[in-house]
Structures are given as C-alpha cells and as structure tokens.
Amino acid sequence: MIRVVLPVHLRTLAQVGGEVQLDVAGTPTQRSVLDALEASYPQLRGTTRDHVTRRRRPFIRFFACERDLSNESPDTPLPEEVAKGDEPLLVVGAMAGG
C-alpha cells in the first residue's frame, strides 16, 4: 500500500479528506503511483502530468523521505520507506511570482 499526500486543491478535486492509499503492483515508481492515482481518481488526470507527454507539470513537485524526487526519472524506484508504506509520497503544488 502506497500512501500519497495531495495538496488541498487536488484533494478537493478528488473529493478525499486526507491521505490517499493506493495498491501498486511491483516496484513502485513515480510513474506507477501516478498511474494508480489517475486510475482511482480519474478527475486528477492531467493535474500532475501533461495529458500527452506524461511529463510532470512545471508547478508540481514530488517529495519523499525529505528528498525532492521531482527531477528523477519517473521510472526510478521510490525509496523503500515509501514502498513499505512507512512514509508517504508528497505531491506539492509549487508557487512562483513575486
């Protein structure tokens, strides 16, 4: 079971109150977790990744175990603590501007 923490605006869109728990077959990666997230909550399709390229949206970041995983390959295995469900994968909406 993979735990995912979404930012408030995505929790509202998905109509969930807190952490989301997902079953992911095999070794969990960003790609497999986001695939499972979009399969479970179709209204989130296109919110974290581009519809066509499947690349991370510019103002979305992924963190786990106090590490920024945003620029890692989407097929890199997630940290073992995330895979075991001890730590969540954090989806964070970044801000820009001044």
How would you describe this structure in keywords?
alpha+beta, five-stranded mixed beta sheet, 3 helices, globular
Structure description:
This protein is of the alpha+beta class and 98 residues long. 22% of the residues lie in helices and 19% in strands. It has three helices and five strands; from the N terminus they run βαβαββαβ. It has helices at residues 8-14, 30-40, 80-83, and strands at residues 2-5, 20-22, 60-64, 67-68, 89-93. Strands 2-1-5-3-4 form a five-stranded mixed β-sheet, covered by helices on one side. β3 (60-64) and β4 form a beta hairpin.
Summarize the structure.
The protein has 98 residues and is an alpha+beta fold. It has helices at 8-14, 30-40, 80-83; strands at 2-5, 20-22, 60-64, 67-68, 89-93.
